[in-house]
Every structure is written in C-alpha cells, then in structure tokens.
Amino acid sequence: MNHRVFLFDLDATVTKEEILPALSEQVGLTREISELTERTMRGELPFKSSFLARVEMLRPIPVSKVAEIVSKVPLHEGIVQFIREHVEDCYIVTGNLDIWIAKLMKKIGLPMSHCLCSTASAQDDRLIRVNSVVDKGRIVEQFVRPVVAVGDGSNDAEMVRLAEIGIGFGGVRPVAYALMSNASHVIYDEDRLCRFLRTLYEEEQEEKQDEE
Amino acid sequence: MKNNVSIVISCAGMGTRLGLGCTKALVEIEGKTLIERQLEILKDYDDIRIVVGYQAEKVMEVVNSVRRDILYVFNHDYRNTGTGASFWLGAQHAREYAVALDGDLLVRPDDLIRAVEYDGCCVGGTTPSTDNPWTMPTETINGVECVTGFSKEKGDYEWTGLAKLKTAELRPGKRHVFHLIEPMLPLPMIFLHTKEIDTIDDYERAVRWVRNNYED
Predict the structure, then answer these.
(1) Which tens digits make up the pLDDT trace of B8-25?
(2) Tell me, which fold does domain B5-121+160-183+200-211 have in CATH?
(3) How many domains does chain A have?
(4) pLDDT of residue A211
(5) What are the structural domain ranges in chain B?
(6) Helix (H) or strand (E) holding A164
(7) Are B52 and B130 in contact (CB under 8 A)?
C-alpha cells in the first residue's frame, strides 16, 4: 500500500495570520492588500492576477525585510509539530514566493524541496520579477502517492478536490465556500485536526505492516 | 468511559417531513436543538464525527457554538443517498467501534450512554410508535436477546437508527444504516427510550417527554 503524503496550505493554515496583509503595513497599503486578500480567498478574484497585484504593491520592501517579517508570523504550533515529526511525508503548497518564505521554512524545519511555491528573482535585495505562480491543483496531480490536503481558501479548492482526503481547516476564519463544496472533511479545532492527521498517518503504517 | 469508540452522527439529510425548513437535527426542544442535546450527553467522548450535507454551514455554526473539536465529514451526495452512506463515510478512519446515531433522534441520556458503553456490538430497538416502522425480530442466543433481521411485517421492536458496530466489519452502502448491519446479524438488542419527531403532534409529545424528565 502506498504511503500518503500530506500537503498543507501556508497562509492561515500553517500560519495563524494571513502573510501578505502582515507585510502591507510596511508600505502603508494595509486596507488595499487586505481587501484583495479577502476577496481572493472568497473566490471573487482569480488567485494568479490578485497575487501578482499584491506582489507589485509589496515590491518596494527589501527582500530580506519581507523574509524577516514572514518568519515572525505566528504559527499553528500543533500543525508545525506534525510537519516536523514527518518531514519526509509533508509538503507546504503555497502561492507565496520562494524568496519571501525561505526563512520561515527554515524555522518550520522543512527543506525548500518540500515547499512547492511560486518563484521570483531578486537582485541587490530587491524583487525584480516573479517567475512562476503555483497551481495547487496541478501539484496534487503530480503526486503518485495518495494525498491528504489541508487548506482554507478558494485557491485551495482544487488541491482539496483532487486529494484522496481533502480537509478544510477553519482555525483562522470560515472555510471558503468553494473549498467546502469540494472537501471530504472540515475541522475547526487545531488539536482535532492534528489527531485526525495522526490517525491517517498511523493507518498507512498499519496497512504497510499487513503487507509484510 | 470507552476510548475505542468513534461516534458518527448523521445530519446530512433534508428532514422535510416536519415542514420546518431546516434539517431535523436543528429542531429545538425546550430551547436546545436535538444535536446540542446529543453533544451534551456525549461531552466526555473525544471522537465525534458529524456527517453534514444539506445546510452544512448552518449545522456547523450551531455545533461550533457549543463544541469545536468535531470532525465534520461531508456527504455531498445527500440528495441521492441515505443515512447508510453518511454512516459509511463517517466511519472511515474510525476507531475499533463506530456508533451510528441519527442527528434527529431524541433519546433518553442514560440509554445513549448505555449503548455507547455496551461491551461489543449492539443494535438499538424501541417500542414501535411510528407509522409503518422498520421492526426487528429477535431470538435469544446464549441468554442474550439478539436482532435477527429488519422487517416491515414482524418484530416487537422498532429500529432506532442507533447501533454500535465493529468498524473493520463494515461494508459500503448507500441506503439505510440497517442495510449495513444486516450482514452482521445476529447482534445483541439493546432497548432504548426514544421519541421520533415526524409530525407536529410528535413534536408536542417530545417536548412534554423532555419536560417530564424523559418519562411518559
């Protein structure tokens, strides 16, 4: 029996706050960026164009400063603990940029090879261009192992729909309607989520033993 | 208290018969919904799964206001499937035993605990009271009264929708929960005091019953 892999959205799933709005104070565009974020999570704006627009607004901030702020966003420690215990089987799947979240990944303890994200180039501590924006649904399709996916926003709906077990996590804010319509499970409590993830993890271990 | 049990409460159906415009689990008796009453009785159990479909957000909102650590399981096909499909979905990745419970069942609190704590599998029966009920013929096996089938013709007890079953023995089904139970029979019968709420008269009887401390 195949081992399951666990895919986690980053913003408001692993983190306790949305990351881009946390950065927006730096450029004095809090209201604009929060509004774009909320509308995107509700599914009113396509993720790709909204994300690029928000990146454009944040571009004046030095990359190292963004990375520093991002690395200090509060985390769901229970989920982080699960990821640390099972690094080999866990991936973070996020629209956020590699150069902005590398420091946070280090803090979580996940190598960048387990972070499937959008990418950008920087020069002299400045973001010069975005190279790719992640498509979370495509990522699930690329896995050959059964997928457990956890997310909360509209841009996680495809990832959750295509997963073997697609979980909506409402720990920070209500689970987006598009995601709920595609989820097999919804959980609001972090401890309950972690218990369910452990059950799913242990189940596969038992099945493996049966085969031997 | 047993910790090898997962409790699966089915709240996915539309429950249109009562004409209240909401899923039956959200019907209020003495200021508390049926689902809240069940969760209050089950407060010491830590693996509660609620299967949702019709008005899922409304059910989750009511439940979240009293208890957060719930695993919600979605039956997206609730229009075409019955409680059997919901229970099957809810019992996936469950502990050794799974308890099937309909979200609209009004049951005497100590009876519900007795069923969950029952040593092994059991099937809940009650005195027949509804129109055209599914009843259960029984037979005494090794001194224990056991359910041997589900029938429209014979049997002294009405099927309640409540059963405690071995998760590993469950097979998928789309219709009623008892279709999942049939291949496992015979199983011990456990008598429960319940009230079914299908009509306004039933509703008023149920209110009186709760007020009278679950005595007729």
Answers:
(1) 999 988 765 556 667 888
(2) Spore Coat Polysaccharide Biosynthesis Protein SpsA; Chain A (3.90.550)
(3) 1
(4) 42
(5) 5-121+160-183+200-211
(6) none
(7) no
Residue of B56, B71, B74 lying closest to A196 (CB–CB): B71
Of the residues A164, A167, A175, A185, the best mutation for testing chain B's interface (the one with the most B CB atoms within 10 Å of its CB) is A185
- pLDDT of B40 over the 80 cut: yes
Residue closest to B196 by CA, chosen among B123, B151, B130, B133 = B130
Bridge partners, B151 (sequence order): B135
Is pLDDT of B156 > 70? yes
Reported pTM: 0.94
Secondary structure letter of residue A13 according to DSSP: I
By the 10 Å C-beta count (0-12 exposed, 13-18 middle, 19+ buried), A156 is classed as buried
Half-sphere exposure of A173 (CA within 13 A, CB side): 16
Q: Does B57 touch chain A (CB under 8 A)?
A: yes
Check if B56 contacts A (Cβ < 8 Å).
yes
Please write down the HEC assignment for all residues of chain B: CCCCEEEEEEECCCCHHHCCCCCHHHCEECCEEHHHHHHHHCCCCCCEEEEEECEHHHHHHHHHCCCCCCEEEECCCCCCCCHHHHHHHHCCCCCCEEEEEECCCEECHHHHHHHHHCCCCEEEEECCCCCCCCEECEEEECCEEEECCCECCCCCEEEEEEEEEEHHHCCCCCCCHHHHHHHHCCEEEEECCEECCCCHHHHHHHHHHHHCCCCC
**Which structural domain, as residue segments, surrounds residue A47?**
5-211
What CATH number is associated with residue A177? 3.40.50.1000
